[in-house]
From TrEMBL:
The lineage of its organism: Bacteria, Pseudomonadati, Verrucomicrobiota, Opitutia, Opitutales. Keywords: Isomerase, Metal-binding, Zinc. It comes from Ereboglobus luteus. Transmembrane segments: none annotated. The keyword Zinc applies. Binds 1 zinc ion per subunit. This is Mannose-6-phosphate isomerase. One of its GO terms (biological process) is carbohydrate metabolic process. CDD domains: cupin_PMI_type_I_N_bac (cd07010). GO terms for molecular function: mannose-6-phosphate isomerase activity; zinc ion binding. The active site is at R196. Its cofactor is Zn(2+). Residues 5-111 form the Phosphomannose isomerase type I catalytic domain. Zn(2+) binds at H102, E118, H176.
Amino acid sequence: MTQFLRFRPLYQDRVWGGRVLETSLGRKLPATGKPVGESWEIVDRPEAQSVVQGGKYDGLAIRALIERHAADIMGPKWDASRAFPILVKWLDCRERLSLQVHPPASVAPELKGEPKTENWYIADCAEGANLIVGLRRGVTREEFEQAVKNLTLENCVHRFPVSKGDSILVHSGQIHAIDGGNLILEIQQNSDTTYRVYDWGRVGLDGKPRQMHVDESIKSIKWDDFEPKPVRGERKNAVIADANEFRIRRVPLAKGEKLRVAAGEQARILSVVDGAVRETLSSSADDTAATLTRGENVVLPYAGGFAFEATEDSLLLLTENFG
């Protein structure tokens, strides 16, 4: 399999969303009148399936694709029944998300949930935008539980400013929220378990308060996790996230520079967060089919070798080590 795999986005209405995916990434969003908070770019779950867009496998769901071509896509040792292990999303956070946590692997089975480690890359943000990750230094479980009752949780969590190009790795068990004004590329474990502990007094799209999961959250939070630091944006090649679940490399390219990916090593995900690149080894007669522009996320199969040339100054993220 020598072609990269591009998928059709799956858009999700969210009470905290907006229309920035349209204005910033040039997407055509559904005309539902509802705020769109998420675009699921690559997903292999029973309730949500990415579908290939273009090329030989156009219209094929990712699950069927892997079942038929597991060795080519994921490598010769990959179990074809195993789901693609990464979920990639764009998040348009016009308003603040709920204060939430994902259960660690040690707790998830008891709660009938799934662990989720995720990385947030700030593709753009409003002036004064912030993130919330981890506890404020010294906060105890007892103080946190009292703050839940008093509706004063903002005093317990670590809130910090961010700029375009910053990123942070959020592990399962870390309390977190995204403040309004952030456009984020989220690369995460294939999981959809979220426990909300506080929602700032907001109601959902149906006009009713959203469900909270206070007990589950208290059981999931890591109580020694104080004030983690983000990776600040720089225009240089670097590993920006390194976890058991995946690794993400930041790859800046000046116009005309190339990124080469060898065949037979591992499956990878390529994300274009700024600029545009052209796949120079593509056999496609349609040159536009081999061009990736800002906002696109594609799978680079195990069996393919690739070379991408920047058609303008560009910034890429390469996700690997998820096999």
